Structures are given as C-alpha cells and as structure tokens.
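Record 1 of the preview.
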Amino acid sequence: MSYNPRMSILPGGALPPGAGAGGPSAKSRAAKKEEEAAYANMRLPDREIVGCINELGISFTVQDLQKPNPIQVQMIFEWFGELLMNKTRATVDPAMRAAADDIVGEDLCDALMPADTRNLLGFFANLKRLMNECGVTDFNFGDLYKPTHDRLVKLFSYVINFVRFRESQTNVIDEHCNRAEQTKARIEQLYQENQNMEGQLEDMKFTRKQMEAQVAEKTKRNEELKHKLLELRKTQEKVAARWEEAKIKKAEMTKELEDKTTTKVVLKQESAKLRPYTLQSPSALQSSLTELSNTLNGDKAHIDSLDRRARALQTSTDSFAVVTGDVASCIKLLEEIAAELAKEEEENAKNAKQRDALTERGASVREVERTEALLQRQLAKWVERTETLRVHSQEKAQRAKESMEELRAVHKKLTEERSEKGKDIERRRVRIEQIEKKMLDLKENIENEVRAAYDEYLKMESHIKLYITEMEQAL
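->
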C-alpha cells in the first residue's frame, strides 16, 4: 500500500520536504528529468541483477529482490563496499570507537552508542560516498533499514554498472594503483633515505668536530714549532755573532803570536851573537885579574930597578885599567843579558800559556762549529718538517674545505628534500584535516539523517495513531 502523508500533529509536518510556497523550480525539474533519463539507461532487469549478485557468491533470488530483507541488503552492500573500497564495518570500527570516545567518553560510549550502530553509521558514510561516485545522489539511511524493490533495483543497477565499468578500466585502475604504490614506496624510500642522510649528517658533524679539534691541535703545534723555530733562529744569530767574535779574536791572537814569534827569533839571533862572550866565566876572569894584580905588584917592586920598563908598565897599567873597564862593562852586559833571558823565559811561559789557551779556544771554536753544523742540520730538519706539516695542514684544510662544501651541498639537498617533505606532510595534514572535517560533516549529516529518520518515525507513529483513532471512530 502506497503511503500518502496526512496532516500531522507536529508543526510543519503537513508539507513534504522540499515543498515550499512556489514548488520546485524549473531547474530542479530539468535535473530530475535528466536523472530519470540516465536511470532509464542504467536500469537492469531483476534477473540480471540477481544473476550478477549470485556470481559474486551471495545467495540471492528474485523474491529476495522483490521483498528485500534489511539484513541481507546490508550484507550485500557491505560486500560491495569491501570489493570497491576495502571498507567494512570492522574496518571503520577503530575510527568510530575513537570518535565515540571523544564525544561521550570511554565509559559511556558503548552504552550510548552501541558498536553495531556506530559501525553501521560509519559504514553508511563510506557507502554514501561510493553511491555518489556511482551516480546515486539521494542515497539515505532508509535504503539500509527499509529497502524497497524500486530503490534496490536502482541502487544495484548503478553499482553493477559501476563494477562493470571498473572491470573494463582495470588496466587504468591498476596503473593508478601501481603508481600510488610506487609513490608510497618512493615516499618510504625517501623517508628512509632522509633518516640515513640525517644519520650521515650527524656522523659528518661529529667527524667535522673531530677534524676541527685535530686542526686546532695541529695549528697549536704549528704555532709552538714556529716559536721554537724563532728561538732557534735567535740562537743561531747569537752563535753566528759569537763565531764572528771568535774569528776576530783568532785573527788578533794569530797576529800577536806572529809578532811574538818574530821577537823571539830576533832575540835568539842576538843571544847567538852574544853567546861567545859568555863562554868564559866571571871566576876565571877574576883569577886572571888577580894574577895580573900580583904580577903588577911584583913589577912595582921592581919598578925602581926597571926604569926602562916603567913606561911599558905604565902602558900596561893603562891597558889593564881599560880592560878592567871593559870587563866591568861586560859583566854589566851579562847581567843585562841574564835579565833579558829571564824576561824571555817569562815571555816563553806566557806564550806557552797563550798557546794552550789558543789551542783550547781552537777546540772551543771547533766545538762551536760542530754545534753550529748540528744546529744547522736540526734547523734544516725542523724547517723541512715544518714545511711538510704546513703542506699536510694545507692539504687537510683543502680536504676539510672540500668536505665542508660537500656537506653544505648535502645539507642544502637535505634541506630542500626536507622542505619538500614538509610541504608534502603539510599537504597531507591539510588533506587529513579536510577528511576529518568531511568526517565531522558526514557525522553531522548522519546525525541529521538519524534525527530526520526519527522525526519521520514520530510523524509516521503519529499518523498511524491518528489513522487508528479514525478507524476506531469509523468502526
């Protein structure tokens, strides 16, 4: 029996939904005609619908289609949802449970919102989106709880045609699915690469810190070597100055030695000239002088008798006086020669001491020369080592610079990839927020539809009560 709505006791219940003061517009009528024309092309016979559902492995007959059972219809729609969207009541249960926990709390969610009801509502939201994709824009909750033959034929026709179209476009769908899987795999790969790059970046930062510490240590050691080199250079300058002073002193002492050697040779020559005069001793001369004096005395005794010899004796006396003067002068000269010899011996002793000192100075000079040669070799080694260290430091600095450039390039690339991933994450977050907003809107729509269904139920109950009352009054 077709239901004809009567006047309701509820306010605003006399007019059906969508009826207004002027009625539906021309645009709505044109859209309805286009929808009816499309439905005429999409409608499938009952036997074909039943055959298609039986081919899917669900036991379904023409009588079941003409007199639909809500539970069976819900099972069929759930199977379509799993086939086309991979959505069932079980898959939406976690999200619906979380939404119920957020709205009414964890303690009251099962009491106020039973699991079957909320799962059915969540599945209905996904199923409604599927029906919109199939071309059914007026799918409502009553199609699951109070299905009719005409509505089921329309819904199944649209869904079966959509499945057929989907099977005809399997290659395109598989291509897009593969592309989505590849994109997902690429995202996972990029995320893993990002993690690896971050690990490598941390390792490079740690290595950079170690290298900076090593470079600082090498720089410090280089500075110490520079200070040591400067000290060695100053020491070398001092040694060179001392060497110049030693050369000057050596030249002076050599000249003095030559002068003294010349003086010694001259003295030796003069001593050789005077040596014959020193062969007779003074005692012999004194004895000779005594004998002459005795003779003179004897001659004096005979002087009177030897008048003739007086002049000779006088001459001899004068001669002896001259000889005596000469002897005295010779004695004086010998004393002077002895003094000169003593001085010469002293000079020789001094020359020996100076020779020893000169020998020691020569040994010191040779030691200084050896030390200078050793210091020169050490200086050459230190200079070479310093040059090697400087070259190594420059090479390490160059490698560190190149590594820093590579690290900067990698960091820039990672930053770009991170920004791209951040943008992608932001897009996904926005998409998730949009989906959450759609879920909230869908939830509100479901609640509104539930309220509308409950209002319709109240209207129907009031109409039935009114109808029963009228029937009782008529009887």
